[in-house]
């Protein structure tokens, strides 16, 4: 019989039963449901609703159940319980009989489910934080070992100004730093306990909710039961953090897919992370990266889904909210997998120094230097920009790079240009001049690497 069978005369239709059950996906909350149930039994004991003996019996049985679940989570799926809460309760009753029926005193599945979900999210956030930090470490190591590799930096996917591979790596470290800070922020607001909120208006039993919250590692108990059982903001925050981070991973993938293309030819991805074509023998495809890019879609989908589920949903709990889980579980798994694959990619990429440098030399990416040079000689930037543009056009027509123009050619465009122009427009000079904070100058990049290594404890 269902937990709520008393008021009913007839059985549920089997189609409805199947439609209504959440066990096929919420079974992953078994551990959290058991831990929160133990905490609840202790609170009941402290309020003299359970005797010490009764609580001990309940707790021991729940711990046995926990062990059984850890050994074989899949076994839950063979049951026909409606959800994980019913499953835990009926298994407890199977183990200790009538006493198990006392556990639900003062509690509702409405405060139970959101407590379980918060505990689950918290556990996953700790794992994600570690994975993101690991990815940052790999970017730093990659930056360090490719410290001197000069390549073109792009805007509009046009070669713009020279950068280094190390500098490109550090850009992603910054993005990941923001992802970490967003995750920590989610944790701050999430870590408030809803348990003891009852169905929607609080519990009629004298439960010390603050003590109960602390016993589960929450910072405090929530203030308003109506809000607590309705609140899924933390899922929205977590999924938007996931969506933003997946966007970062997707841009990383796209950059590398382009760097790996025959057209750019800046990197080579190892056999370990690429696959072939069933038809074209020459192909070595960047599947790992394409999959990260593609999986972004399902995470955005889950974020959109939870936003739509909650929009206009009246207070407090509605069964619509059961739809919060599958997208959340899938997205967190997907995000963590993609972070791990990004780590694997970084370990399996070879940078082709020569072709990176050649591309940087070829793309007129030092045209800004000519303009800056002329500004130093007294022109306004706008005039200097115009002359540099004319020189680029000249070089394009002659199919040359700017460094290969003769001094007399330079001087037909401006007599302010002297022999020192050549040393001003080398790739090295372009880089070294950008010493201001956040710039690409190798010294600046070196300082950033040292700082990051210290911050991440890389020895
Ligand atoms: N399976 C439900 C969910 O995921 C648990 C809460 C059920 N509460 C209720 N009043 N039916 O949302």
Quick summary:
With 459 residues, the protein is mainly alpha-helical. The protein is built from 19 helices and six strands. It folds into three domains: 14-105, Fumarase C, Chain B, domain 1; 110-207 and 216-353, Fumarase/aspartase (Central domain) (Fumarase C, Chain A, domain 2); 364-448, Ribonucleotide Reductase Protein R1, domain 1 (Orthogonal Bundle), CATH 1.10.40.30.
Note the topology.
Layout: H1 14-20, H2 23-26, H3 30-46, H4 52-71, H5 84-96, H6 109-145, E1 150-155, E2 158-164, H7 165-190, E3 192-193, H8 209-215, E4 220-221, H9 225-230, H10 233-260, E5 267-269, H11 287-310, H12 325-347, E6 349-351, H13 353-362, H14 367-376, H15 381-397, H16 407-413, H17 421-424, H18 427-433, H19 442-455
Parallel strand pairs: 3-4
Antiparallel strand pairs: 1-2, 5-6
Helix pairs in contact: 3-4, 3-6, 3-8, 4-5, 6-7, 6-12, 6-19, 7-10, 10-11, 10-12, 11-12, 14-15
The structure holds arginine.
Please, could you describe this protein's structure?
This protein has about 450 residues and is mainly alpha-helical. The chain folds into 3 domains: about 15-105, Fumarase/aspartase (N-terminal domain) (Fumarase C, Chain B, domain 1); about 110-205 and about 215-355, Fumarase/aspartase (Central domain) (Fumarase C, Chain A, domain 2), CATH 1.20.200.10; about 365-450, Ribonucleotide Reductase Protein R1, domain 1. About 60% of the residues lie in helices and about 5% in strands. It has helices at about 15-20, 25, 30-45, 50-70, 85-95, 110-145, 165-190, 210-215, 225-230, 235-260, 285-310, 325-345, 355-360, 365-375, 380-395, 405-415, 420-425, 425-435, 440-455; strands at about 150-155, 160-165, 190-195, 220, 265-270, 350. Strands 1-2 form a two-stranded antiparallel sheet. A two-stranded parallel ribbon has the order 3-4. A hairpin with a 2-residue loop joins strand 1 (about 150-155) and strand 2 (about 160-165). It is elongated, with a radius of gyration of 30 Å. The two termini are about 60 Å apart. The structure holds arginine. Arginine binds near residues 317, 319, 321 and 322. Arginine binds near residues 83, 113, 317 and 321.
